[in-house]
Amino acid sequence: MSYAIGQLGWSTLINIIGLHQVYFYLPPAPKPGQDCFPDLIEKMAFWGLSTIGVVAAVGRLWDAFTDPIIANSSDRFSSRFGRRIPFLFLGGVPSAVFCWLIFVPPHNYISSTNLVWMTGCMLLFYLFLTVYVTPFFALIPELGHTPEERLNLSTYISVTYALGIIVASTEPMIANVFKSNFVFDTDISVQTLVSRQYALGILCVFATICMYFPVFSIHEKTYCEAEASSVPFREAIFLTFKNKNFLYFALSDLCYFLALTILTTGISYYVTVLLELEREFVTQLLTVMLLVSFAFYPVVNWVAKKIGKKKTVLFGFYVFLVLFLSIYFIGKDELPLPPYIQGYLIVAVAAIPIAILGILPNAILADIAELDSLKTGSKREGLFYAGRTFMQKLGQTLAVLVFSTVILLGFDRETKKNVSPTVTGILPPSVSEPKSESEKNLKGETKISMESTICKVEEVEAGGELVVRLTGPLASAFCLLAIFLFGKYKEDETLEEIAKIRGN
């Protein structure tokens, strides 16, 4: 249980980033009567790519270097506290601190300093989160000594990962409490900004506490079957990715997380732009989805034992495929259902694959890692989970880059039609009318910071609405690729070889 609570902690952090970062730095324009939110960075970077997408990509490239290094260091590490727990101790607090600082830029207006700040904090956040998460996952095959025990562990941490999504999604509710009961600034946009920062700070403190449960309660030397690896770093990397089952599994994971992250990144847009509901409704939807998914957990365990983990996962992929395609149609006037009901139906269906893909992939990877260890004599669980984590992060990065760029380009096309762009949160008075470049530079950031901001209310969103809809079919294309790749994983052969070598 303590191990699973640790997952609740880091799940809260990573879902704070997944659910809120793009919406925080790329806010849609408010509809009449809604509060506005300050623009903090330039939206477009270069070649039509969004700034937030480019920054996310840089963070994941950084992960490309740190993941295998941390994993190999953990595999080869030895101490009286074990080889995983010391890394968890080191990574917990810094990852939570830098997660919060990502949302606390130095200025409350558009500034290059904000961009540098966000990028630096993001790199440090991912570094320390990797220090925690990669050794954390490597404990699964060490704490779980049989396939059944590993499946149970995967189920427990799947539950707490889902709870982390719910916890992270409560930010709008907590922020509203702060905004209603405290006055941080007379400017309503800054009031909203600071309220959100306090809310995110509370969530990060909660995450920190959870992350240290396994540190102080798991005695690794007592519970874990493990010994330090003696394989050199480069050879360990080569042996890990030489495993074909792992390679297909990891590439499938990349495509799946690319598709899933498009959905999770876009959920605030789906609710506010397509369904035209308040952003607080996101919390209700995610809570319903995850509570319903919990009800399916015993069913998933039972079905996986009856027909196998691979067939169950493929079924989950196909359900997701249909779900992604349905995003294109939600909120249309032709649908007879109210927006609230549409939202609840979507998350109710999503609960099934969420339950399946939340439990089984970790158990499958534990089987792959165990067979590799039995055949090679080298315990490299850390590198296997680092490889999966890297593929997940790469998929999430590409999703943020693709989603934010598609959204931004779609709304930019609306701007060229002289229509208020849906994705411009606020405009300062000093740039609300066309001016020469020299005049803009002369006014600069100082004038922006000294004047109150004016909300640019959305007038027409036809083009912007279309690109939001198209993100669903786009995600479905990556889901199809995930199905193809995962189909090449040979589950029966893997389990038979494990049983044969162990003499069962």
Automatic annotation (TrEMBL):
InterPro entries hit by this protein: MFS_2, MFS_trans_sf
Coiled-coil spans in chain: none
Xref: Gene3D superfamilies: MFS general substrate transporter like domains
Any one GO molecular function term: symporter activity
Record's keyword terms, sorted: Membrane, Transmembrane, Transmembrane helix
UniProt record, GO biological process: carbohydrate transport
SUPFAM superfamilies referenced in this protein's UniProt entry, alphabetically: MFS general substrate transporter
Pfam families named in the record: MFS_2 (PF13347)
Spans traversing the lipid bilayer: 7-26, 46-65, 85-103, 115-141, 153-178, 198-216, 246-269, 281-300, 312-331, 343-369, 390-411, 466-486
GO CC annotation terms, alphabetical: plasma membrane
Family from the record: Belongs to the sodium:galactoside symporter (TC 2.A.2) family.
This protein's name: Transporter, major facilitator family protein
Organism per entry: Leptospira vanthielii serovar Holland str. Waz Holland = ATCC 700522
